[in-house]
Amino acid sequence: MAEDFDALWKRYWELVGDVVISKHQFFMSNLQRWLNLLEQDHRIVPILARLERDIDFGTWYQECLKTTSGMVGSGALTWPMDADKRLGMHLALIRAFASQKIPFQDFCHHFLWTRNDFNVMANDIAEQIFQPFSRDLQYEIDRKLRMASIATAPAAD
């Protein structure tokens, strides 16, 4: 089972790396590839569903937009204090980028002061939002998978 986790995390971090080095033309497709890895693993799907269960991304995002002013990047992202809800909200934001429900350029205009360069914008989101989130998510998924593995392991004689 440990080898299975090792292969999963190897591929996970390869795809995280692809997102982090993405030029703007490939940013959304690399996010989609990363999400597909998670969504195709039957062990991970219920963990993601639990994280997203009790969040209202649309309302949260609209409240964050209300904090913007006339200055580029002036908006505040107020993440939930609860760790699971925070991870769920981050995941919903990543899904919104991947589906282009929220164009990453608009997000940067509202919440990140960045140059008017789409590659820099994609990189800023990858470094400031995606990379820390992917690390926290990997830790949570790995913890849950290992707990489930221990719970289903046969008892020693």
Question: How would you describe what is shown here?
Answer:
Helix content is 71%, strand content 0%. With 157 residues, the protein is an all-alpha fold. α2 packs across α5. The longest helix has 35 residues. The model has no long low-confidence stretch (mean pLDDT 91).
Can you write the helix and strand succession as a string? Answer: HHHHHHH
Indicate the percent of residues in helices.
over 70%
Q: List the uncertain runs.
A: none
On the 0 to 100 scale, the average pLDDT is 91
Report the total helices. Answer: 7
Strand content: under 5%
Structural class: mainly alpha
Rg over alpha carbons: 17 Å
Identify the overall geometry. globular
Ends distance = 20 Å
Main sheet record: none
Primary descriptors:
single chain; 157 residues; mainly alpha; 7 helices; 71% helix; globular
Outline of this structure?
By secondary structure, the chain is an all-alpha fold. It has 7 helices and no strands.
Give the helices and strands, then pairings.
Elements: H1 2-20, H2 24-39, H3 45-52, H4 57-65, H5 83-98, H6 104-111, H7 118-152
Helix pairs in contact: 1-2, 1-7, 2-5, 3-5, 5-7
